Amino acid sequence: MKKTKFSKVFATLFALIMVFTSIPVQALAASPTDLNIHDGKVVLFSDMSEDQVKYQLFDECVTNKEGYNYKDYEWEYGCNGYNWSGDHRWVRGSVNGFVTKFFFGDFTHPALKDNTEVGEDGSWEVNLTGRQDKIIRVTKTALHVNYNYDNTKGQILVNDKNVQGAVNVTSLNDLKFKAVANEGMKIESVTIGGKTASADPSGYYTLPIDNSNVDVNVNFVKNSFGITVKYSDLGTVTLDGQTVSKDGLTVNKTGEYTLNAVANKGAKFVGWSVNGKLVSTNASFTANAYQDITYVPVFEVTDAANNFTVTFLDCWNNIISTQEVSNASEIQIPQGINYNGYTFVGWSLSNEEIAKLTSSTTITALIKKSATGFTLTSGDAEVTFKEIKNGEELICGKLPDGKYLYDTEITVTKPGAVSWYINDSKEPVAFGETFTFFIGSDTTVTYKTETAEDRTTVAGISTNRIDGSYKVSFLATRHIGANDTIVSSGFVYGKNMNEADLVLEKVGDKGSNAESGTVKSAYSSNMSTDAQMSLNYGISSATGAACARPFVVVQDADGAEKVVYGSMMTYNY
């Protein structure tokens, strides 16, 4: 009997042991002595919960946070309390404060976030409960926020009040803000601490709680642009089917729009001019609205019985002069223009031929390639180039001194290269093991082998004043990312500008400096994936700074369009 009882008891105990040992064992919180704590500055608001205060202390003052949970630890701090008679007593308080009850009255210790009894330097003595061996100093600080945006285009609201510039946030209620665009504007981007931010379903953005300065940048842009078309009595012109009257026509547009021109009898359509440059010779021309822009339809008279038109173009299709005359004796032959790498040598018609004109004619500048070469520094990359000759004359290629003629097509190759940079450009200008470009100045090409995203980039290459002219040649290169499609490209430019002035939505506006001129734009007709583009622009008084900023407009795989800008290029006279 005893043996049987003993066996039953043993079996029962064994079963219980098996049950208990089969229960999963959860990891216990590490001892406070396992945590490394140090002095710090902590953002504490009076409306924070005890849990939020504990998180702030843990996040800032613990160096080895990985694998530990802030909720598992308590904090103590040095504070003064007050009893029923108003006397002070010093004690180590808890994060959330507490009340000690005595016979003659209660003794209240304030919460850490509300404590005003601090040291001369504004800090408390703080330690983890169970770590009296390690006393640290903690200083309460505000959350410093810089709200940056153009208040002529929109506003930022915190608790329905407008804020801008430096703001100290002292309440949880002030951690959310809303960006509101003015009429005719939209929000293009919002960044918080340099990272792209998204609004919640109610339209609010939330600030992170840390002890550093936080920059909030909101970019408001126009949601439509003014497209202006000038009138011509030599033809009928329409904008999206709407006829242009004698006063011209301006319509606000988003997305695509189409211009059409039909010449009258006795006239011929030449092209669409923007800022003196023919951007298209097609009578029907479609473009995208990215800026306020003015188009001038250019016609020429073809009926010899009436007046006729003579148009002088440079070698890049820029209109130098358009003259409507009744006979050739009225034609004023303009002065030719030199360009970087090229010298003007005359017109496509001689003076004698021009003097005999009786009908509308377009006359183009003739140029000669400069014999001056440019150096190329390419490290250990292999270099190949295309040589072009006109008879015995070398037009493009390598000179005996090792330099390359202007506009020579050069390819650099390096196995293992991932991205390419030119003349210390901040952004890569090409991706892959090869990079092809046309040389236009002394050039240094470098590469990197680190992994890089194949994305759309644009960068300035050189800024050179043209010999014998006040004009400056701005040269830039662009690369269209693997998932993007080019829409347009060119330069935004003007006199004495800041970089922030040179964006498409500010074309037509005055720059922000006292001596600034009007912001202008010029478009490239080259729609290649990888290409270089140039702008010849200058200040006729040869004073101040000529400024230009390259850009490219692309459409991504989802159909969304965006503008990518390079850094501002400057020539100081």
How would you explain this protein's 3D organization?
The protein has four domains: 32-141, no CATH class; 143-222, no CATH class; 226-369, no CATH class; 373-572, no CATH class. It is mainly beta. The longest helix has 20 residues, at 2-21. It is elongated, with a radius of gyration of 36 Å. A five-stranded mixed β-sheet has the order 1-7-6-2-3, covered by helices on one side. Helix content is 6%, strand content 47%.
Give a quick precis of the structure:
The protein is mainly β and 573 residues long.
Largest β sheet strand count, sense and barrel closure:
5 strands, mixed
> What number of structural domains do the residues give?
4
Count up the helices: 3
How are the strands of the largest sheet arranged?
Answer: 1-7-6-2-3
Overall morphology: elongated
Q: List the uncertain runs.
A: 1-27
Considering DSSP H and I runs of 4 or more, what fraction of the residues is helical?
under 10%
Give the helix/strand layout:
Blueprint: H1 2-21, E1 40-43, H2 50-61, E2 75-82, E3 88-94, E4 98-102, E5 105-109, E6 123-128, E7 136-141, E8 143-148, E9 154-158, E10 161-163, E11 165-169, E12 176-181, E13 185-192, E14 195-196, E15 204-206, E16 214-222, E17 225-229, E18 235-239, E19 242-243, E20 249-253, E21 255-263, E22 267-274, E23 277-280, E24 284-289, E25 293-301, E26 308-313, E27 319-325, E28 342-347, H3 351-355, E29 361-369, E30 373-374, E31 376-377, E32 382-385, E33 388-390, E34 393-396, E35 404-405, E36 409-413, E37 419-422, E38 430-431, E39 434-438, E40 443-448, E41 457-465, E42 471-479, E43 485-495, E44 520-523, E45 530-538, E46 545-555, E47 561-565, E48 569-572
Parallel strand pairs: 1-7, 8-16, 17-25, 26-29, 31-40
Antiparallel strand pairs: 2-3, 2-6, 4-5, 6-7, 8-11, 9-10, 9-12, 12-15, 13-14, 13-16, 17-20, 18-19, 18-21, 21-24, 22-23, 22-25, 26-27, 28-29, 30-35, 32-36, 33-34, 36-39, 37-38, 37-40, 41-42, 42-45, 43-44, 43-46, 46-47, 46-48
